[in-house]
Amino acid sequence: MVVCILVVAVPWQSRPFYGPVYQGKALSVWLKEMSRFDVDTSLRARQVLTNLGPDSIPALIQMLKLPDRSPKSSYTAWRHNMPSLMSRWLPSTSGDGDNFICRYNAAFLLGRFGSQAKVAVPDLVKLLNDPRTIVRFYGAEALGRIGPEAKEAVPALRAAKGSDGAFTAWALERIEMKTNSAAVINQLVLAVSSDDKNVSESAVAVLRDAGLARLALPPLLDELKTRGDYGNQRCNAADLIAIIGPEAKDAVIPLIEALKNPENAGGMDQACIARALGMIGSEAKPAVSPLLTLLKSNKVEDSLWRALFAEAVQRIDPVSAASAGVK
């Protein structure tokens, strides 16, 4: 056992970080922290990088070029496709195999700068051929958000094939200044139910940012009532509802029903559902009472689950949380 720990730990300690330093951390560290399950850490990292503004664009372009320094592993792909709560506790592979996290987060941020990031277009185009599905998605999304200034990407987007179709089509319409067509919107809605977590996450994010989050809810609410082969389907559906955030207020009652479902008691599904309610925020106040009941229950022994229930109550209703002594 000791030998195994050393084998995993040594590469981690020797892992290099890239980019200029902000608030004591390299840019690559902030980019990786954006993908952490810990909501506060993720949001803080995203805010720091957003505050840097367009001045961070040159460094972000360098992040797009970071290669995976360890061989592509089927285990790595499997781990990343697990629900957030599960993948957090699974060991990562050694080396810098997770540089893809830097690539897709850099693409995400460049897209948020819109036309100001037009200098990044050539490197974003290269991401359309990245071996990582989620990197290709965010590359296409960033090009779409840059808009007409990314017109040189049109041939590459038209040539893109496979499961990226909904996202490349959306990007093309943005670049060519067309209104989102019903066909593209329908493709994105279908992608919400994809078995590939990367596809579904990207589809939900694009629909949310286009003001069409309501279209993503029906398939996700259906998934809350089912269970996949690995028991992850409910948790993944809740994770996606969490991405929508406050706009998912119509999901509050179904989420509460799922929270109370005995099949979910004391497990990962219940924790994912609690997190989704917390991310919806004040619109989820009807969930405070059942969440407090769970916190008082002796049936919930896992400290992580209890912490997530407490965090959800604090996000939904800080006053009730304080009155109940939730810390």
Task: Supply the key terms.
disordered N terminus; mainly alpha; Leucine-rich Repeat Variant; 327 residues; 2 domains; two-stranded antiparallel sheet; 1% strand; single chain; 20 helices
Structure write-up:
- With 327 residues, this protein is mainly α.
- Helix 9 (133-146) packs parallel to helix 11 and helix 18 packs antiparallel against helix 19 (303-316).
- The chain folds into two domains: 2-69 and 81-215, Alpha Horseshoe (Leucine-rich Repeat Variant); 247-327, no CATH class.
- The chain has a two-stranded antiparallel sheet.
- The chain is built from 20 helices and two strands.
- The longest helix has 14 residues, at 39-52.
- The model is unreliable at 1-16, 71-75 and 88-97 (pLDDT under 50).
- Helix content is 61%, strand content 1%.
- A hairpin with a 2-residue loop joins strand 1 (21-22) and strand 2 (25-26).
- It has helices at residues 2-13, 27-33, 39-52, 57-64, 74-80, 84-87, 99-112, 121-127, 133-146, 154-159, 165-175, 182-192, 197-209, 217-224, 233-244, 252-260, 268-280, 288-296, 303-316, 318-323, and strands spanning 21-22, 25-26.
- The protein is globular and about 60 Å long.
Provide a brief overview of the structure:
Helices cover 61% and strands 1% of the residues. It contains 20 helices and 2 strands.
Question: Roughly what percent helix?
Answer: 55-70%
Q: What gross morphology would you assign? A: globular
Main sheet summary? 2 strands, antiparallel
- Termini gap: 35 Å
Query: Which H/E pattern describes the elements?
Result: HEEHHHHHHHHHHHHHHHHHHH
How many domains is the backbone divided into? 2
Which consecutive residue ranges, at least 5 long each, have pLDDT under 50? Answer: 1-16, 71-75, 88-97
Q: Provide the CATH architecture of the largest domain.
A: Alpha Horseshoe
The Rg value, from CA coordinates, equals: 20 Å
- Mean pLDDT equals 79
CATH topology of the largest domain: Leucine-rich Repeat Variant
